[in-house]
Amino acid sequence: MTVSRFKDHDKPQLVQTLRNINPRQYWSMYAVSIHPIERFLDNFFKYCPRDSLMGNHSKIICYGCWDDMGCLIDKLYDQFWKVIKKKDKLTIGDYIFAPYSWRCNFKYNLKDYIKLNVSNENIFFDEIDKILKRYRIDKNRKKLIGNYINDMFDNRTGRMVSNDLRLVYDSELQRKQNVVEKFLSIYYYDYVNFNFELPKFPTSL
């Protein structure tokens, strides 16, 4: 299977901005990532069902595809090519579904970041706790950070969807050849840059 991979897109240079604020300050940068399929399905279930809390905004964010996942991936694939070729700008829907590798100018600065994966919550919280202890963060700030992280997990709408429904869409995402190819085209560098194992698809593909 041959796929065209989305790679080149610039975002604001966060690292350089921080260095400009205080050139003498050493900044420890952390990139928090989630498995590409998990992230896509979380956003899909949050924004695309017809009964979504986003209402009419869902039609815009999901390109009118509603709960048709194959349609959405087709639309995203075409739109992201336009963005890369400078023929269009990112919309709010693009930003929600865009490859994580496009954020924070990771193309240039990813080596400056320490990567954290949220797919396993227990391991993630252990890593955060170690970081807070390492930097001797006071109790009040620890609580503030803890509340923020809890909100982050609580707001993953896709987690509230039944496992059976997630499995149906997960299976569809990995079963249809054209969907598989376009999904990997879009998110290939998220797998590579954040050390996720590429999915193994049936050899019939």
TrEMBL record:
Q: Which domain of life is it from?
A: Eukaryota
Q: Name one GO cellular component term.
A: membrane
Pfam families given for it?
Answer: Sulfotransfer_2 (PF03567)
Membrane-spanning regions, if any? none
Tell me a Gene Ontology molecular-function term this record carries: chondroitin 4-sulfotransferase activity
Q: Which InterPro entries match?
A: Chst-1-like, Sulfotransferase
Q: Name one GO biological process term.
A: chondroitin sulfate proteoglycan biosynthetic process
Q: What is this protein called?
A: Sulfotransfer_1 domain-containing protein
The source organism is Parastrongyloides trichosuri
User: Source taxonomy lineage?
Assistant: Eukaryota, Metazoa, Ecdysozoa, Nematoda, Chromadorea
